[in-house]
Amino acid sequence: MAARTSDPTGLHRVLDDGVVLPQAAQRLDTRAELWPDEVRIRVEKLNLDAASFRQLERKHTLYGETDAGAVRAEVLEIVASRGKMQNPVTGSGGMLIGTVEEVGPESPLGLTVGDRVATLVSLTLTPLVIEDALARWDGRGEQVPCDGYAVLFGRSIAAVIPDDLPTDLSLSVMDVCGAPALTARVVEGYVGAGTAPVVAVIGGGGKSGSLSLAAARRAGAGRTIGVVPVDREAELLRGAALADEVVVADARNPVALRDAVAAAGGPADVTVVCVDVPGCEGGAILATAERGTVIFFSMATSFSAAALGAEGLAADVTMLVGNGYVPGHAAYALELLRSDTGVRSLFEGRLEHEATR
Fold first, then answer.
1. What was the pLDDT predicted at 277?
2. In 3D, which of 17, 37, 35 has the Cα closest to residue 27?
3. CA pair distance 195, 166, nearest whole angstrom
4. Residue (of 300, 299, 301) closest to 285 by Cα position
5. Is the pLDDT of residue 64 over 70?
6. Dist CA 219 CA 217 (whole Å)
7. What SS3 string covers 49-72?
8. In percent, how much of the chain has pLDDT > 70?
9. What is the pTM of this model?
10. Was domain 11-174 assigned CATH 3.90.180?
11. How many CB atoms lie within 10 A of CB 169?
C-alpha cells in the first residue's frame, strides 16, 4: 500500500496534481487493495443518472436511430480514463448496486462481507473498474448490468437493499431518494409556520418528480401541481393520482410554464425542478410566488443561470440545490414506494418500458 494516509473523503485516491476532492478530480486511483477505512463492492449494476444517459443517447442518435454500441463504448471510455463514471458534459454519474466483498478494519459504514447494497453516493466520486466490457448491456437504458468493483470511503453512504422489493425497483428509488426527503423537509417548514403550501413539481411524471409529489402531499401541502411535457405522461400521472392538478407545459418556455402553473392554482410556494433537460431555470423562478422556494434537483440545471435569472427578474425567492443527501432519505423514499400505489405503478411502468425498448 502507498505511503499516503487515507482520508475519509477519499483524498488519498485522487491522482490529480492539485488538492481536489474525488468528485472534482480528473482521475481516481482504482487499485483493489483497500486503505483501512474503505469498503470494496463487487458491482452488479450501475444506474446512470437521467441527465447523463439522455445526453449520451442524444449524442449518439442520428436520424432518430440511436447507436447503442457507441453509447456503451463511451461509458467504458469514461470509466477507463477517469477511474469513475462522470459524464464530461453533464458532470453527473449515477449510483450502483453490488455485494460487499471486503471491509477495511477501520470502516465506519457498518457493512459486512456479503451485504447486498446500493451506494447512495455519486459515481462521480466512486473509484470504479469495469471488468466485463459491459457485455450484457444493450446501451438503451439507464440501468447497466456490470461486473467489476468499486470502492467506498469512510464518508461514503450505502444502504442494504431490502428483501421485500425487486432489486431493479429498489435501485430506481434509491437513485433519486434525496429529492422526496428534501421536498418533505421544505414543505414541513411551511406547515410548521402555519401555511399549507402550493407545491409544483416540474417533471412530476419522472422518478424524482413522482416521489416528490407524494412526499409533498404527505408532508401537508395544500395543493400539488404536476407539470409534464407531453400528454402521455399527463395521462400516466393523472392515473397515479399523485397531484391535485396535472398540466402539460414545456419547462424551457418560461412564460408557458408560469401560465400553466398559475392556471392550475399557482403561483407555487414551493417549486421542485426534476427535469433532465437544460434551460428550465427561468420558468421555475417565474412559476414561484414571492418569498417562495425553488428546489433544483436536475443535474442539467445551470446554477449561474438560476442566480442571474432570479436577479434579473427581481424575484425574491430562495433557491436550494438538492444535494442528494438527507439523513434517512433512502428509508423514507422506499416507504413512499411501499405505501403509495400511484408511485409504485409509475416506477414499475417505467421499468417495464425500459425492459422492452
1. 84
2. 17
3. 38
4. 301
5. yes
6. 5
7. CHHHHHHHHHHCEECCEECHHHHH
8. 98
9. 0.84
10. yes
11. 17
- Cis check for the bond before 22: say yes or no (omega within 30 of 0): no
| Portions of the chain given CATH number 3.90.180 | 11-174
The stretch 285-308 carries a mean pLDDT of 92
% of the chain at pLDDT higher than 90? 86
Q: Are 163 and 170 in contact (CB under 8 A)?
A: no
Model confidence band, residue 356 (pLDDT cutoffs 50, 70, 90): low
**Which residue in 118, 124, 214, 137 sits closest to 175, CA to CA?**
118
**What's the fold here for domain 178-327+338-355?**
Rossmann fold (3.40.50)
312 grid coordinates: 434579473
